[in-house]
Known about the structure:
Number of strands: 5
Shape: elongated
CATH topology: Beta Polymerase, domain 2
Number of domains: 1
Order of helices and strands: EHEHEEEH
Helix content: 40-55%
Distance between the termini: 44 Å
CATH class: Alpha Beta
Strand order of the largest sheet: 1-2-5-4-3
Largest sheet: 5 strands, mixed
Amino acid sequence: xxxxxxxxxxxxxxxxxxxxxxxxxxxxxxxxxxxxxxxxxxxxxxxxxxxxxxxxxxxxxxxxxxxxxxxxxxxxxxxxxxxxxxxxxxxxxxxxxxxxxxxxxxxx
Length: 108
């Protein structure tokens, strides 16, 4: 499954921000290389549905593919759930704040 995390699902992104995606549940260690290869072939495909450019495989501690899709920066990682956990936590905090604000409005 593919999940977005970071500023995009929280709707706190800036115009020059990136889209962070994590592929979760993958059982192969080579999946990140397969994703990079797939995006590189899309980059060369002139009839592709989306314009893909500048595909890079970043070999840091957390390996990821960075590319431009329709001129948006996209970072793709595999089985990195830290960002997803943070997203869930922040969504819960926002929900609690919303409930609190509504309860204040109702009692006043």
